[in-house]
Design a protein that fits this description.
0% strand
């Protein structure tokens, strides 16, 4: 019983860690894309300072 509980906990922790890593990478990717787009628009004079 205790072994099954331990294995379940380890699997759950691993799953949560994987989800957090994927979400972090996705958020970082979106932030990078937004920054690149902003720099691109600023370089063409269409950005915030137009």
């Amino acid at each position: 019983m205790a072994v099954t509980l331990l294995v379940t906990m380890v699997m759950a922790i691993s799953f949560v860690t994987a989800v957090i890593l994927v979400m972090t990478r996705a958020i970082a990717h979106v932030v990078v894309v937004i920054v690149i787009l902003n720099l691109h628009l600023d370089a063409h004079g269409i950005g915030k300072n137009a």
